[in-house]
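Page header: ASSEMBLY MODEL / two components / 895 residues total.
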Amino acid sequence: MLTFTEEILLLLGDDEGAFLPIREHAFECVLAGAVLLDLAFAYRIDTDLESLVVINAEPTGHPILDTVLARVAARADKTDTQTWIRMLSTEYAAAIREQALTSLVGRGILERREERFLRAFGSVRYPTLDHAVQRGVKARIARALDDAIPDPRDIALISLADACQILPELFPDREIGPARVAQLRRMDLIGREVAGTIADIQRTIVRAARVQAQRTQNRLLSFSIAAAAGIAAVLLVPSIPAPDRFGPSVLEHLWFDRFWQQWSGYLLLAFSVAVLLIGVALRKRLVPRIAGLRRWRLAHVVIGFACVPALFAHTGFRLGANINAALMGFYLAALLSGALAGIAIGAVHRLHQAGIGRTGNLRRTLLWLHVAAICPLPALLAVHILAAYLY
Amino acid sequence: MSSKTVYWWVGTTLLAAAYMAASMVVGGDRRPLLIGRTTDAHHQIEMACETCHAAGPFAGAAAAERALNETCRNCHEAELNAADDSHSRSMFRNPRMAAYWEKLDARLCTSCHAEHRPEITRTGAVTVAMDFCVACHSEDEQDIRLDRPSHAGLGFETCATAGCHNYHDNRALYEEFLVEHAGEPGHKPEPVHGLTARLRLRERPAETALGRDDAVAPAAALADTKVLALWAGSGHAAAGVNCGACHAEKPDAESEPADVAARTGPADVVAHWIEAPSTGACKSCHEPQARTFARGRHGMREHPGIAPPRNPVEGLERIGLSRVTPAIVTDWLADPFPPARMTVGEARLPMRADADARRALDCGACHRPHDVDTARAAVEACVSCHDDSHTRAYAGSPHHRLLQAELAGEAPPGAGVSCVTCHMPGTESRDTITTNHNQNDTLRPYEKMIRSVCLDCHGLEFSLDALADAGLVERNFRGKPKVHIESVEWAVQRSTADGRSGTR
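Prediction written out in full:
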């Protein structure tokens, strides 16, 4: 039988061997919770109001489950479920994931395939070899969503999938209301002695995952709003006039002195290349979508945001003329569409709470505009730089 | 967005970039690469980048800067020398001036005149703050306030903007000159422009004058009686210049005017007849006018310092592609050949809506080829294109009324003031008076025309005041100056206190 970790990884895998994009820390919480759920279903742990305790320290035969079991058993002081999930997600998430993937590869369900992009980005894909197993897991969830009295193990799996927020992607053709998922989670797990433990772990996983998801989204939202505000300033605020007094002027040096223009240009170019490569790697799914997603996407957004002050230093937000105007136009369009897409992604939960549930088309349109605006930039940048050095 | 769309979009931009790269290295229109609006009349030569960017590709910053400054001097050095440049490059190249290099490096034109920077370009194409005099004249022995008590309360931003000083041309403000002309009346008792008067009164030898019957041309040309009549009444006929001088093909490119003049035999003229002669025919006799025309805004594309169009074959040879590039591509990469002369449509100054935008500014634009009526060229030709307030206000202005009086014989020769009187004044060299066709010689700043033009009829104080009053200039000097420049009083006070005198 597959563990919860293995099942959730199977659900996350797509046809190309990459993973559905989910927030890294939420996923780490899910992995930690999945292990605790496996231990609970194996009657190894129990919870009360204040702590999670080992009731049977006998090894289960799964290396990672036994490692976690030993870790929990070794702790003397009282520690509640939430703390354990936080600690385990920090200490063991990578190991849990690797062990589960290795196990799935060993069973012939997945295949391990390593790839590299521009030597800078290494990625490992896990294409599915045995689609029947994956379909079986999905079918169990589908049945559980429909059945009046589902299997407790399927309910736990639904809780994990819900914490990952992948249910809409797994079942794009059906409406899965949050009420039905909450109802399933609240179901009395009749006949199970550890029913309270499982429910406690489920609640904690969902809570921890959502808190982390909100933090990440808030960060994304903040940087995106700041970038959008910077670009709006370019378009709305009149350009800063040149100083009327002769003498050292930082702004005049920055914008009109060849030396400083050259170095601010190098800085902007470095930011632009970095953000472009990361963007391509993200779009082409060349960075690990789970372990590295948060880091790379945050880097993409932060460097994209840093392009705004760098652009200010290089141009003073003057729109330029001729080919430079085209470059500036596409550059600002790329930054603005990226910032708006970031806002749309970062605010998705707030919009959902406000009753605006369907923002997928908006996000897709903004990302389309983002890519369309970026495409001419390498060529325009090359011409801009070549012209600067030729003349 | 599908991958196909992305690849198509990227491919299109790469193709466009490749063309732009080729236009930089091989040939083609490079105006889309201009990083900013060019200054003043430089837009006329902006398609010939090498005119200013003379350093080779990928030259170091210092070499590029040196080359830029050298090309500035190519076109402007003669003008600066004539103006007795107050801050000449040679003065600042002296190592004793090294302390000033850090403040404002006056050895380089580009320290104050950066091109393609419309955001910081001020009056006179200056790209530093207009109080730039503060850099050197606010401390040590150069502190202007030390020996000029009259300047104590003046801000440095007023030095070059109030109508007093100019950085380069201060001929109207030399202290001794100011003192010498102190107390002059606003209008002189017999206001006449001396050189113009002498030009008007010039006598032509009667023995060389030609009449209608002397014209030598093919029969078809002689049949045009209107043209024949115009020529017979022109200065050309009066000076003995027959049709063949302009219409007969020259024996070779280096022919002397004398050779052409010698070709007056009917057979020669008919055999080598050119229906529409080029301006080369004019230049062959009017070389000084042609030379000054090429220095002004009307004819600057003919200046010898302008870089010629690039040869795309040479560009392809440099990158080793000349043998593999088909001729059709080579032709496509040729530099766009701009009109050899400025056209009315290219002007940045306001032009009349009914002016022919395609009209090239050659000799014939102002001088009708057969009657060569200089009176028409002096006013009518100008106002037929220019449409700024100063030009529009000319008709009926005091200067215009004087011109009408002169033409009517009610005022002495040289008393009238046409556009040319001020903007293309006559100059004398070796007893020969020629019209200076560089209209910029007395402009930018206006004070450049005080010595050569204004003082013929007006006092210095009046001239300084009038030219400092922008509104009065716009109204074409209808009324009296409302601005007063105190330079003359201050110079007199200082001179009296020091007991100095003399003229520079």
